[in-house]
Queue: 2 jobs
Job 1
Amino acid sequence: MLFNSFEFAIFLPITFILYWLFNRNLKLQNAFIVAISYLFYGWWDWRFLILIAFTTFCSYTSGILIDKANRKSQNKKAKIISAANITINLLILGVFKYYNFFVTSLADAFSAFGITLETTTLSIILPVGISFYTFQALSYSIDVYRHKIEATHDIIAFFAFVSFFPQLVAGPIERATNLLPQFTQKRSFDYSTAVDGCRQILWGLFKKIVVAGNCATTCNHIFATYTDQPASVLMVGALLFTFQIYGDFSGYSDIAIGTAKLFGIKLMRNFNIPYFSRDIAEFWRRWHISLTTWFRDYIYIPLGGSRVSKAKVVRNTLIIFLLSGLWHGANWTFVVWGAYHALLFLPLILLGKNRKYTHTIAEGKHFPSIKEFAMMLITFLLVVIGWIFFRAETIGDAWHYICGLCSLNIFKAPYLFFTSRKNSAFVIIMLAIEWWQRSKEHGLGELQTSLKRPISRYILYFVLFFSILAFQTSDSIQFLYFQF
Amino acid sequence: MRKFLTKTILTLVLLTILYIPTYCVMFMLMYTTKEPATEYLRTTEIKFNEIDEYKDIDILFVGSSHSSRSFDPRIFSQHNLKTFNIGTLSQTCMQSWFIIDRYIDSLNPKCVIIDLYPDLMNTYGEESAIDFINSDFDHDLAAWEWTKLKMSMCTKNTNVINEWIYSFFRRHILRHKNQRQTFIGNEIHICHDKYIRSGFVEKDMKYYDLKPDYRIDTTCRCNAMQMMFLNKTVELLKKRDINYLLVEAPVPSVLYKSYDNHEQYSAKISEYGTFIDYNTRITLNDSLDFYDSHHLNQNGVVKYDSLIIRDLYELKYISSVKQN
């Protein structure tokens, strides 16, 4: 079920009312969450519910076994169980997501040396959101192994933690330390949290349907015909994809977080105005925060992080960026995208400047300084180039696209300029609201303090509501991040 | 909780009430010429404005342009068969059901031929719904508006619903109407299309240049909604004891061969009644018998119609066929 579908518009209010009717019995409420989450996922393909249930059960059982071993100080046993659970989960992920990629890549590599390998690829569907819920389930067993959290014996609460429908298929990738305790405590309805949730859903729908959907239409056309387009149009295409992917993914996260708030659950923030970053390190602290911190906590730090020799820092940085690229999809374009960002990130970490900008830009001011603006612009353009690799079908396509950009006609007004006026207007509205609300949790966060008069708030709601209903395109429907 | 629900519902109602006039006024100002261009042959509109003249017909044809551009009443009338073709642009099972349900009593057909084009079986009928929405019908305006609204809602597409809102406003508030097209004899001729009384749309003689269409999906898929409407149609016809035949009109072999699971598709459709895939029953020339990558030219129409008449006779779906 998609957040921007008619089905969800019926599903959400019904489940919301029923959920709070079950409020007196925590177990019943959690069981209800599991049931509606499985319905939500099964709407796409019920067969893959078995896979989620299996992943969840493995992590639940291994958590209990690890905890038992930990209590008896059987460190080796705990390690073996944890490793077994990680292996099982990664094997499932590997088969469904990466098997064909590795087999064909291996065959291609051998064919470069004139050796022909007989390979068999699998004709299987990629289960929606497999990377998200696998990582979430993994984080639990690792945290139990590391004594960060006690294993839960409440199987319903655990199933609710892994399958909680707002974040099941496209994140945020939650940690057991944050989400699991919320399923073991009684939840109470809070009016202001629910209102804030509704606002966040509205903002997410605007970003997804209006900004991402409209950008996608023009962007898809440009990327499909890039060989025939002048540099200025290619630039428009790259910029539109930059806003498409942000609107799409951060929009999804906002809807997910807002929906969770309606159910009294607080999910972690996933995006924090990433396009207003002053360097790449800041960008990565603000983009897909739940994944970035996952890699940091479960791979980068265990490898030694930045408190090791410079050579190892380089190795660790390369590993997490390449894995992050590969996590996004079984294609070399994603690996190159990861490597590109690693190259941008490495100078900062080696010079110890990766934590220079941790505060919000232009705090307490209306506008950034010229220096801040220039830094923002440079970072933004570097990110735009990276997205070309992310969007292109092959590395060759991405390279030719970038070569196409390197032409003097980049300074000519693109012929698509006038047809993309509407897109530009939507992007400007999004950026303006995000800049204005940059210190808040989301675009419409704490709106009563920013817009004190109710009429002003209602005008803003209406503008967003109107845009969502009136400017939907056929490209507004599918979410890009579902494929990851 | 009660306060939250009340406030949310009131806000949504208020926003929706404000949305409708704002949308209409804004789009009226932005697109002053939103009515379909006058040089466009609005076959759906013409068809349903003449349908009331027909009663107790022998054969009713439904389906997409594969139907409206394939069944020529002049060929059927040579066999003393009175027909009407309600096939329209990209019509899907959903639209077919609404139309059959509405006209089955007045047309009272002996037999219904339902054309099922695989590429439309996995859509929600958006294109066809917009075609109906933008057509101005002379009779039963309230009933038509209700049918159009139901079609729009079935598409679950906001753009289609918006289109209905604006067309309602245009027709009933602004009182704008599409320019009427009048018959000269039994025909209305605009550009390269000719509308023939009884619902047939004939293209000026042309041959397919064998340039294939760009297609993303080559797998025949049937979504649950379309299958539900096909089932409803079939049940309605069975209940009324009306013979029906499910057909797939011939398409150029390059298109037909591009499907990778046509056998499974045929098997699935066959569960709903007798299904004849005419691509396997007739040998046509891709260039000489078609005018584009989808549609038969008049050469192909004559061959296809002659064969289907023979089949209907053999199946005993019709009894008054004159043997040539």
Note: The two ends of chain A are 16 Å apart (CA to CA).
Job 2
Amino acid sequence: MVEENKPVPGASGGAAGNGDAVSDDKIQEAFERRKRRLFEERSGLNVTSLMDAITIILFFIMIQSTTDPLNISLNARMQLATSTAEVRPSDDSIAIMITKRNIVLDNKSIVQINCSLDKAECTDQDFEQRNLCEKKPSDAICSKEFKFEVDKQDKEKGDPNSLVIEPLRKELDRIVKQQIAEDEALGRKFKGVVTLIADREIPFRILMEVIYTAGKIGVQGKGGLSQFRFAIMKGGNE
Amino acid sequence: MGKPSDRCHIDSVDLGDPDMVPIMSILCILIPMLIFSFVLYEVKVQEVALPKFGGGGGGGGAKLLTLAVLVTKDHYLIKIQSGTDEKDVREIVLKKVKSRICGPLVPCEECSGEEFDEYDYAGLYNQIVKLKESKAFAEVDSINIGAEDGIPWKVLAKTIDAVRTKLDGADFQNLCTYSRAKPARIHTTDADGRETSSSIEMFPKIVFVML
């Protein structure tokens, strides 16, 4: 293609004579420039389409990450249980996160959970190994019992058998009152929905303590926490 | 001096391509960061009713019909109460069963993965289906689930699945066939004429009870 456009020196249109030497040089230079530009156009990366693709990916990811009402990040201390449930989480619920280490409310650790394994304190490495039990159930750690409990000093009147977790009750009370006031200002009805984001290893006892504590929260005549939902990871029956 | 139009050399003013390097650099940092925080799993919620603590009122002598699944360390205990008297309570025990890990493409009969003890979710489901199909529980929509203190949430979540959702197929012989069964669906048309499908729930109201 380029070869076809090559000019013939001295044959620059109707111009002829001695001055043609300068003119030929200019033509040659222009030709070289054009050749170079053509080469660049053909071999260069087309950034525009790449930018388009990247922008679409960026927007897609950003929308996806901002529309998740629970925004759960999974790690060794927080692994969701799998279930076939199909109900979508609502964004107007109060989320209580129960990890292997603590109970979290509004991204703030409220209560610590003690964990022991063979009379020793659990480590994050133990949790990581335990999390693999679904794939490797014959591992030694899978048959061991992790003992999770809330310290008795965090229980009502320091009674270890109490179902009320005092720091959680106080914090929930504050949040519920605040939410009721907000809902009233906006003319909405307080729904009293709690979403429990519990790690899959958390024992029934702690779940009951959290539900029982939350069930006690409410404002006379304005409702309280009455609907409980557990966050799960969508999966099969396996 | 030629015409003004000849003197105007717009073509020769080369602004060049915009420098994409800093923008691309930002994007190259942003995209991996967002992908890292990207949720690759779907989060749903499972509804439960407020737990029952202690014994309730008598109910004015009305016939009591309750179904409870209790989870212990090594078995399930299904309690069927069809009256107010203790004699009216029937119990079914489902011990843990040997199960094998099975890859998704391996037929259930050819499963050769590691063997481990697992709660009999398939057996529980089979029993609950039978009860739901019986006349006594056809109209009942709630089931009580209780557990020993140390039973982990993952077991309860699967137990709730086994008692709540009806599956395609019946009488599952092992965990593999049960786990591969899809939920039975019912197709309905709403007021706007749109078709919607939802899973069939046997006992939609799950109530936690303390043992």
Note: Residues 1-5, 8-17 of chain A have pLDDT under 50 and may be disordered.
